[in-house]
Amino acid sequence: MTSSPRLKLAIIGAGPVGLSLAVHAARSLPTADVTLFDARALDKDLSRDPRTLAISWGSVQLLQRLQAWPQEVSQPIAHVHVSQVPPTWPAWGAPGAQIQPKVDLSAAELGVPQLGAVLAYGRLVTRLQEAWNTAVANDSARLHTRFGAPVQGLKPLSDGVEVDAGIAESFDLAVVAEGGVFADQARKAVTRDYAQTAWVGTVRLENGRPGWAFERFTRHGPLALLPLASAATQGSSLSAALVWCVPTAQDPVSGLTALQRQAVLNALLPSEAGRVVEVSELKSFALGLNAEKTLVQGRRICIGNAAQTMHPVAGQGFNLGLRDAFALVQALQFSPDLATALRRVEWARAPDRWALMATTDFLARSFTWTGPGLGAARGLALALMDRVTPLKQALARQMMWGLR
What we know:
Blueprint: E1 8-12, H1 16-28, E2 33-38, E3 52-56, H2 57-65, E4 75-77, E5 79-84, E6 89-90, E7 98-99, E8 102-106, H3 107-110, E9 116-120, H4 121-138, E10 143-147, E11 153-157, E12 160-164, E13 168-171, E14 173-176, E15 190-206, E16 212-217, E17 222-227, E18 238-247, H5 258-268, E19 275-279, E20 283-291, E21 296-297, E22 300-302, E23 308-309, H6 317-334, H7 338-366, H8 374-387, H9 389-401
């Protein structure tokens, strides 16, 4: 912050959002002291962590600005196909034809190189940590790493915040970027347990379409396939990350064998996805909405999953957190004082945060509602969106860059 040369900034959590903030702050706030905290050991190798991130085109551009985008191990998304498991219904004025309940988005149609990309969590964290380590080595007088000791508490002070990570240290501002998963979080001001479980893993597809991502709404919940990088291709088949959301109380997935899961997926997925020929071991996670009403509390601000943990239906959690981080640095750059900066970032981030939380909350719940005609109505809404170009393009822009 140009008018506050002695700003002391603590960043708690060295996941992809916290690391992105640290790297961006190191470069864009040249007079600030920045300290990055994390419970894990600095030399812990996360490069093989297979968790998958869906990264929007806007986020790719932000990571490129940080010179931390691992293009060589990412898989661009050229096409997104959103659809609903039938029923379908006869098309007006076209005997025997059917209106397909789907929305197709393509990078070519929208005039962008890609709609987004798919990347392993470990690959991104490794690249960002390399960028942070380089920055620390080049400016160790003001950039500091505190790994290997969890932050045990934050204590508000009259003019800052005290961070206790075994040794108490005072800062002007503490940024909490350590979110975790819904099941392990303390409940925040806005919370909803969807009573859903996400089963995640990978599948191998025959006759799949390279660079295509699929979101399929079923009566149990959303089902998504995200294309994986070509290194994961075997022969003529393609690999894709799977996110399969089902009700927790009547879980139709937990008791199935791998072959049975394969058969069910082939029955649920659209023909455009190809045929599932192999399903990996799947892991399960509870799903819910857990969000702060306000990002700022005194001299503490939450970003990423620490501010809002959402349903994965639109794959937007990391993208929203990255926009939080960049908005914070911009506010610190151009605001006359810290209080003004925090007010600015609070107001600037509110429309994007609440619009995306409302959208994912509606999608997560509405496609599981049952009742006469609801399935047909949802399918008609998808079909109409596909035909109303301005509406479809507005949806695509929000997914790529957020509400702005």
